[in-house]
Amino acid sequence: MTMTAHQETIDQADQPLLRVRNLSKHYGMITGCRDVSFEMRPGEVLGIVGESGSGKTTLLNCLSGRLPPSQGRVEFNASRHGLVDIYDLSEPDRRRMQREDWGFVHQNPRDGLRMRVSGGANVAEPLMNLGRRHYGDMRQASLDWLNRVELDLSRIDDKPRTYSGGMQQRVQIARNLIHAPRLVFMDEPTGGLDVSVQARLLDLMRELVRDLGLAAILVTHDMAVARLMADRLMVMKSGAVVETGLTDQVLDDPQHPYTQLLVSSVLQI
Amino acid sequence: MNAQANDAALTATSNSPERYYTYGYLDEQTKRMIRRAILKAVAIPGYQVPFGSREMPVPYGWGTGGIQLTAAIIGPDDVYKCIDQGADDTTNAVSIRRFFAKVADVATTEDTAEATIIQSRHRIPEHPLKDGQIMVFQVPQPEPLRGLEPREMETRAMHAYEEYGLQYVSLYENVSAFGRIAATAGYPVMVDERYLMSPSPIPKFDNPKLHNSHALMLFGAGREKRIYAIPPHTTVRSLDFEDYPFETQKWEESCALCAADDSYLDEVVLDDQGQRMFVCSDSHYCSDRRAQGFRGPMAGHELVDIDKGAGQ
């Protein structure tokens, strides 16, 4: 009895959260990304770095079910289905899995927020999508989350267009974490922000990710962001992964010439 | 050349062969296409069926969807009633009623109980509808999710997979801004616990009348090219929150002319001294009650006569 229970916990922990095999995406003759394989465990933060045009966003879109790959498999350990290829699921099942288990933080908060409804409603929407129908509870939950992302609570009923870029990004992060997802995709989450706002946001995200035990895939071209957030790094060039390893290992002792170039190009103050 | 033939066609009775082809304004093929859409809409309550909407002799927004529905289902034996804002005597209602009296040779009426087809935009008549009656609604925007989600691809997927959480965002916005669900017209409903539907811009006061109605409800959106329906005796539930239940409008006043306290009231500003009156928006219901001897505080007001004058 105890043995079995113990065995099950081990099996659970043994299962990867995300397993990607030989993933390729071609746009006609052009290669988006090619032959990417990796595994992720629950609670792990994976950074994908590389210059623009290296296939980071294509890869992220393929992983997050938004862009069917040309070849390869993307298997996710979904709470309803177990470890399945997300492109084998029917569309309603896949959409439900995306709603329940995932979050997606866009580089531009305008892509991830509904600009016509208030910040509070934006944060509460994932709860409504999951079938919650009690206004008072959802209001409280969105207040809690706006508090956690350090947003001025008196602004909760304002439209996101009246917020600064940093505030919009924080609302977007709250919106993507409120339903306790198991995996969050982040596409340059601090891309358009100035450095001080960026530093506070990174601090906040690092705290949240650690507190919640979230797994996250973080796409960035900023080495400092990668260093701060990611446990592991994948370096991409021309659609292929050229180097992968622990973040500190990759950044302190880069092996591939391109990684060496990337690390040495970071500006020092 | 065919002046004589034309005259013959115009004077022919409505069910004679000469009149068949263009009876009820639309040609037969168009009417068949619309009837097929209606059948599908009735079979899937609340589902928006696309149809090939035609150009009508009125602009979009004046009821082209409703007119096409009526033209497709009307027959010489029908009795036709048309209301606009609940009133039988407003310009648009009078024009559309005359249109069908002319092209379909039908009897027209203002009496809700007598009518077999009732075309409306904003109201469901106060008088309870009965089996065999058909309500035809003119719908400006059939998609309840449009204000929140502009992509048609996405809203269709949401309907297909029954993903209706988004609609609650608009209710949430209402409660956070006004402390209650302040939406009044076109209040979203769930039909048969499956499809989310916008009930045309009728006031939410009329939403309970949709539930288990005896009459067939048809909705036509001409510009948006959609037909949908609520068959008789179908469950219709207005959306709400657990802690903010659905409720209809209430008035402290009763009708100034007929003293009705159970009907939907319009506020009429009488002068610039702050004088105003509340009257039934359903003009036939109000005049019926006055004929029965009910008298409100402003009974006999000159507006009554204005009503009469316009109705002729």
Average pLDDT figure of chain B: 89
Distance from N terminus to C terminus of chain A (CA atoms, Å) equals 60 Å
| Most extensive chain interface and residues per partner | A-B, 25 and 21 residues
What is the alpha-carbon Rg of chain A in Å? 19 Å
The strands making up the biggest β-sheet of chain B line up spatially as 1-9-8-5-4-2-3
Count of helical stretches of chain B: 10
The count of DSSP E runs of length 2 or more, i.e. the number of strands of chain A, is 10
Order of helices and strands of chain B: HHHEHEHEEEHHEEHEEEEEHH
The biggest beta sheet of chain B reads: 7 strands, mixed
Structural class of chain A: alpha/beta
Q: How helix-rich are the residues of chain A, as a percent range?
A: 40-55%
Please tell me about this protein's structure.
The complex is a heterodimer of chains A (269) and B (312). Chain A has 11 helices and 10 strands. Chain A is of the alpha/beta class and 269 residues long. In chain A, α5 crosses α6, α5 packs parallel to α7 (165-177) and α6 (135-148) packs across α7 (165-177). Chain A is globular and about 55 Å long. Chain B has 10 helices and 12 strands. Chain B is α/β, with parallel strands linked by helices and 312 residues long. In chain B, a hairpin with a 4-residue loop joins β8 and β9 (226-230). In chain B, the strands form 3 sheets. In chain B, strands 1-9-8-5-4-2-3 form a 7-stranded mixed β-sheet. Chain B has a 3-stranded antiparallel β-sheet with strand order 7-6-10. Chain B has a two-stranded antiparallel ribbon with strand order 11-12. In chain B, α3 (28-43) packs across α4. The interface between A and B is medium-sized, with 25 and 21 residues.
